[in-house]
Queue: 4 jobs
Job 1
Amino acid sequence: MDVGLNEWFNKGLTPEQYMETLDKHKEAFNHIYESFSVENDETFLQQLNEKNVRAVVLAEPWCGHCMLNIPVLLRLSEKANMPIKFLLRDENLELMDQYLTNGKSRTIPIMIFINENGDEIAKWGPIADKTKQYVDELRKDLPPKESEEYDEKFKELIAITGKEFKENADLWNGAYISMKETLSKI
């Protein structure tokens, strides 16, 4: 049976319920949420509101990219009065597998924007170009996965990116600009 996006939306967690699932990234998530604010862009925000856009977001509380991007989306949704529901990726693979990155990867977050009929009108995720450039630059120094030192170096990379995601407002703004570009096309 093909479940429509309205049904996925209806079964999702509210932002508050999703935030209650946070553990490892809770402090950084809350820091970004408290520190980021959406620019005064009344025309854009009003257009979103008038189109009755809603979002279904595939995410997980342990995901660093979710920690960076979801607080930005929450601030945008508050300004535009855009309802959002969250689905935990690992419990909703049927939907996730329809939104694979590069046709093969379950990378999150995936933000599916829908209209009042439940039709997809835009998709964003998993990361903004600015974030991808930053991460790709760090990844180029990783040893091959087969290397004995790969796991240690990968853990170091995760620590560096987690700190940067938490503290670098340019990355937050890059995420917002990317989301805005996607949503401006609807």
Job 2
Amino acid sequence: MFTDVVGWISALILAMTLSRQVYTQWRTKSCAGVSHWLFIGQLAASTGFVIYSWLVENWVFVVVNTFILFTAVVGQTVYLRNKRLSPNQ
């Protein structure tokens, strides 16, 4: 029980941190300091972690890694939009 609580709290902190970063990029319409490869790597790693977490039946990590995968997709979309709108292409 305590182990799951630690996992869920950590997952919540990570989800809030990633969500805030993507939201900030969306709001400012800026790509400053963000690499295109960040989201590509995040997509690949998160997909692997979702599969692994599911195989070992660790539901805390299935949920958090699915959310992280979702933020990678949104982050990549926002990044590409910001690049398209940037006058410094």
Job 3
Amino acid sequence: MKKPHPSRALSPQEQDALAAELDALRDSVVADLGERDARYIRRIVRISRYSAVFGRIALMFGFVPLLWPLAVLALGVSKILENMEIGHNVMHGQYDWMNDPRLNSQTYEWDNVGTSDNWRKTHNFKHHTYTNILGLDDDLGYDITRITGAQRWNPGYLLQPAYNVVFALLFQWGVALQDMKLGRYVLGRRPLTEMFAKLRPIVRKSGFQLFKDYLFFPLLAGPNLLAVLIGNLIANGMRNVWTYSIIHCGHFPAGVRIYTRAECKNESRGHWYARQMNGSANIEGSRLLYILSGHLSHQIEHHLFPDIPAHRYPEMAPKVREICERYGQHYATGPFIRQFGSVIGKFFLYAVPNLQRRPRTA
């Protein structure tokens, strides 16, 4: 028997009222954007850059006790900030109102093997438009993980608890290749010429990243080449695992709902808002966790207002939660360990053939 989702269905009139309240909340924050927000993002950019400069210079001294691990940590934190709080949020257009060419959503290129153009398509458009709609949102398991009984089972899923460890370590590569759907070319369903054309920008971008981190900077260190190479490898791994963990906590823990295409046909704005609420989950923690997560600790608020500067989400969260409660909508939130633990539990639960049929929660 499928478990009912804790949120109640909304009437068309309630959907319209919900949309009006959330639109008003968004408008009030937009009207308040200004120098405070500009100072915040510029400060984060400086911290990320200074951290990267320190990390790269300190790595040049080789395996010096205390200095080397501190350098790796600094470089890893820099990459996390650039990926999460800067790159992801800038590409959502959160700072376009500043008219700063360095923070322009359409031209920003991040420190990642995936291209920004590809991210804007797969994430900003596909994922945020079709959040948690089975068959339309490619982020549902990233085509390699079964996280709901509504997904067709195959024997490969038996290994998903193990191969997700590899996926976490190489997460930036999975994101870079996500839209390729390589299986179609392997099976001959699409021409290889098309595959090579789509791969070209990815190869160019990833080639630059590999050259920078694993050739240029290591060679610059001379005899300390190995210390720099290993340091860069660990820093990239830190960023990959952290990003993987935060994103999975935001969409796959207990209490998050999966939708069918039929449920979202001719969707109203109010229904879209409700789907964002029910298809996302928050992580409770410290301000440091919020910053390092790019404020995707507030994934619910991010999906409701993706173009609002993310550092505003903690201020908006109490109002969003109060609105959820009044409209009978579940507000999925919890500490990191609990949220990620429930994700891991799903890896094992759905690795085997259906133990529960087509649940409404995932």
Job 4
Amino acid sequence: MGVFLIKRILSVIPILLLAVLILTGLIHLSPVDPAQAYLSAAHIQPTDELLAAKRAEFGLDQPFYQQYFDAVIRLAQLDFGTSYLSGKPVLEDVLLRLPPTVELALTSLLLALVVSIPLGFLAGIKKNGFFDHLSRVIAFIGASIPSFWLGYLFIFFFAVKLDWFPVGGTGSVMHLILPALTLAFPLIALYTRLLRGSVIEALNEPYVLFARTRGLKEGRILGKHVLRMAIPPMITGLGMNLGKLLTGTIIVETVFSWPGFGRYFIEAIFDRDMPVIQGYVFLAALVFIGSSLLVDIIQAVLDPRLAKKGGTV
């Protein structure tokens, strides 16, 4: 297990270096001049002299390899520079905006797991039954309705018509329910059908038949053997969506006026705040890579054979 962990952690390094390379290249491909964006945000009339001075200050007059090397050093220290608008370090603004996004993402994830695990399990063991048909309806709705439209529907019915929840903002648990449900609904649809398929596949395995012929109780077979073998594919899907949750809350935060990391990124795009945009993209890559690494480790713990085979999950 120790060798497996070391190999997986070391494999992350070239991926991060590639992410920084792409991020550095995007600055040159972008039509936005960071120096001009900075002067515009500071309400300073750009001149050739000021633009040249700012490009030198930002290191944009250096060769590409030097800019890449400097970016690696800075990002390794989580130094994303200073926001053009607030004048504060980007990391300081990120740490201020990240907790609401983490709160929203974890609540959505918890809600999705609480609903999808029992629903998917019952849909699998009772194929073509009530819970199976219910899971199909949820999957159809979750795959068909975009998050922003689902959010507006929730606001219209539950906030405007019924007045059960506030329209947007933050401050209480009631403010959290609608955006969390909007984020959780597609995940419920995905995890329910994923677990259902895994349960049906596990029920057809020979070891389940052997367990039944040995006279084991059905509850023990379902809990100890079927559910245990059906959970790993769901964990893989969970890891793939964890990064999406933390970085993909942009639309939901905008719809519900949630003061999180995603909304901060949208504001930075409109204001052409390049350090914030770069910081967000790098942190997004870091979250996706970290969640993938975490899933590989959990899978290896659940099935030690993966670690012995080199960690192919």
